[in-house]
Specification:
This protein has about 300 residues and is an alpha/beta fold. It folds into two domains: about 5-170, NAD(P)-binding Rossmann-like Domain (Rossmann fold, 3-Layer(aba) Sandwich); about 180-305, Orthogonal Bundle (N-(1-d-carboxylethyl)-l-norvaline Dehydrogenase, domain 2), CATH 1.10.1040.10. Helices cover about 50% and strands about 15% of the residues. It has 13 helices and ten strands. It has helices spanning about 20-30, 45-50, 60-65, 80-85, 110-120, 135-140, 150-160, 175-205, 210-215, 225-235, 245-265, 270-285, 295-300, and strands at about 5, 10, 10-15, 35-40, 55, 70-75, 100-105, 125-130, 145-150, 165-170. Helix 5 links the parallel strand 7 and strand 8 (about 125-130). Helix 8 crosses helix 12 and helix 8 (about 175-205) crosses helix 13. The longest helix has 29 residues, at about 175-205. Keywords: NAD, Oxidoreductase. Its EC number is 1.1.1.291.
Length: about 300
């Protein structure tokens, strides 16, 4: 079986980066796409799990690139992205057959456009397809995917993207998917910051946090952030590692601040939230799920003392 994406025939898929989000995304491609899938990750555990589903595990990105026509990437940051694409054992090393790269990571808009230009010189199409929602959505194949691509590329890629996501939005040309994803995270982080602050103030004022959040959920302050991060994590104080750590949140809001600077916007809310992330990381919570900012707010907030 093969499909055509952006005018390129695709007979086999690759997946590089089988972490918290990448592993379940790859699992959905293996079970739903009807195509052979090759994958790689530094850790053996996801390779074994996915091999049991039918994925072929390989030793590095270059080995994936030698076998796959279209490769999905889901890595932590821009440095890893450049390494898996252009490094010594990267996707585009000698012998590569890659025709399309679909980057599901969250990195800077400038880097996305630089990578796209670099691979275009080798006849490769670059698509930024940043994903949103949590691991549960990755497992269920219900991610939100924000795509930067030409209209024809988006339409031809959509059947594969629907293996991992239920909501696909073409945001514009290359880089636009990253713009929208960065701003999605900016708004979310600021909302959770506000919820954590409100919870700390309510508790310090002798109001039950559950009562506060129940009232918010019934009024104009209702939101997905309130129901998931607020009620699900802030209230019970549940901040597990390997969910979405504060370090990653700080990286992403840093991308928003950079984008704001490039566009001449004074992003005051983003600066405040970035500062809180910095203080929370310095307090030893960098690996914890980022709503852990509540611990820092309650420790130092003037009202909470």
């Amino acid at each position: 079986m093969s499909v055509v994406v952006g005018g390129q025939s695709v007979g086999a898929l690759g997946f590089v980066g089988l972490g918290v989000m990448g592993e379940p995304m790859c699992a959905n491609l293996v079970t739903k796409s009807g195509l052979t899938v090759y994958g790689t990750d530094p850790r053996n555990e996801p390779l074994r799990a996915l091999a049991a589903l039918g994925m072929t595990p390989l030793g590095n990105a270059a080995e994936v690139g030698a076998r796959a026509d279209l490769v999905f990437i889901c890595v932590a940051d821009g440095e890893q992205l450049q390494k898996v694409c252009f490094g010594e054992h990267g996707l585009l090393a000698e012998g590569s057959r890659v025709k399309v790269i679909v980057d599901c990571s969250t990195t800077s808009v400038a880097l996305t456009r630089e990578c796209a230009a670099q691979v275009a010189a080798q006849g490769v199409t670059w698509v930024d397809a940043a994903v949103a929602r949590m691991r549960e959505a990755a497992r269920a194949g219900t991610l939100s995917i924000m795509v930067g691509a030409a209209p024809d590329v988006f339409e031809s890629l959509a059947p594969l993207l629907r293996c991992v996501g239920s909501d696909l939005v073409r945001c514009g040309p290359t880089g636009s998917g990253q713009v929208v994803k960065i701003l999605n995270n900016k708004v979310l982080f600021e909302a959770v910051h506000s919820l954590a602050e409100a919870l700390a103030i309510a508790r310090a004022a002798d109001v039950d946090g559950a009562v506060l959040f129940d009232a918010l959920a019934k009024g104009s302050a209702d939101s997905k952030a309130l129901r998931f991060q607020g009620i699900g994590h802030l209230l019970p104080g549940d901040f597990p590692s390997r969910t979405f750590p504060t370090l990653y949140a700080r990286k992403d809001i840093g991308l928003a601040l950079s984008l704001a600077a490039e566009t001449g916007v004074d992003a005051r809310c983003a600066r405040a939230t970035a500062g809180l992330f910095d203080e929370t990381i310095a307090a030893g919570h960098g690996a914890d799920y980022y709503p852990v900012i509540l611990k820092f707010i309650e420790a130092v907030h003037p009202i909470a003392q």
